[in-house]
Design a protein that fits this description.
This protein has 275 residues and is α/β, with parallel strands linked by helices. It has a single domain (4-273), classed as Alpha/Beta hydrolase fold, catalytic domain (Rossmann fold, 3-Layer(aba) Sandwich). The chain is built from 10 helices and 8 strands. Helix 3 links the parallel strand 5 (93-98) and strand 6. Helix 2 crosses helix 3 and helix 5 (151-167) packs across helix 6.
Length: 275
């Protein structure tokens, strides 16, 4: 089953979506930032085969969506996502957010509970007030100055590779991985040029937000996830929450084996089907 890409017009610009499947059983997936929804290319058809209309969204400023003209907070991303779902006439759906896009998914679940019927949080951080203050003050990562010699591009590559190897310790870059690594790096560079999101992450208090989520929640993590330590906190704070831990490398981080998307779908499908 093919994945179809299209652009959705919103008041803030064009948002890229990837879709597979048809019907009224909707599941919407938000990418693992700073990458794009291309990470779900192998996942969407498998969800469609299970009877879902599966939609993956590039949040504004990421992947193929338009650039943001100013720094946004989590409610701004959620408001824009609300517009996207309105245009697509998705009035009822399960919503999945990966890593920091999970904050946006959480806010959507709280502010639009009639639309969002189930919430999947995949490797989503729940930071202490102290950590949020540090992130807000210092940002996330450092940006090398752009110069004629291209050193900044190498610095960005090394930063991306270091993060990917935290998620997938066995990752080896070779010719076979060139297409996927090129695509990931393109997403990474585009995101690095955007107004910073550190303030958005720091300003959003998941400790305070999660008890306000009325929907059932599935908290996913992988053994090598950078934020896996937050899973117990999500299980504690969300009202009706179950957890799933992937042994070894998380399926979406196993870039050399896209067929592992089946493991991902197997983990979330029972939860989605219970809606």
């Amino acid at each position: 089953m093919n994945v179809v890409k299209s652009m959705v017009a919103t008041s803030q610009g064009q948002v890229l979506v990837r879709r597979a499947g048809r019907g009224e059983r909707h599941v919407v997936l938000l990418q693992i930032l700073p990458f794009s929804s291309r990470l779900f290319d192998a996942t969407l058809p498998l969800l469609a085969m299970r009877g879902y209309c599966a939609t993956a969204v590039d949040l504004m400023g990421y992947g193929g969506s338009d650039r943001r003209t100013a720094a946004w907070l989590v409610p701004d991303f959620a408001a824009n996502l609300h517009e996207v779902l309105e245009v697509l006439t998705i009035t009822r759906c399960a919503l999945l957010g990966g890593h920091f896009s999970g904050l946006v998914a959480t806010h959507m679940a709280i502010t639009d509970p009639e639309r969002i019927v189930r919430l999947v949080l995949d490797g989503v951080p729940v930071w202490t007030a102290e950590t949020r203050a540090k992130v807000g003050a210092g940002g996330i990562g450092t940006q090398a100055a752009w110069t004629d010699d291209g050193a900044a591009i190498l610095a960005q590559w090394q930063a991306m590779l270091a993060m990917l190897r935290k998620l997938n310790p066995g990752l080896t870059v070779n010719a076979d991985l060139a297409p996927v690594m090129t695509a990931l790096f393109r997403d990474w560079l585009a995101a690095s040029a955007e107004p910073g999101v550190a303030r958005a992450f720091a300003a959003y208090d998941m400790d305070a937000a999660l008890p306000n989520v009325a929907q059932p929640v599935l908290a996913i993590a992988g053994e090598h996830d950078t934020q896996k330590q937050s899973q117990p906190r999500i299980l504690q704070l969300a009202r009706a929450c179950r957890g799933h831990m992937f042994e070894g490398v998380h399926p979406l981080h196993d870039f050399a084996r896209p067929a592992r998307a089946a493991d991902y779908v197997d983990a979330i499908a029972p939860f989605l089907a219970a809606a």
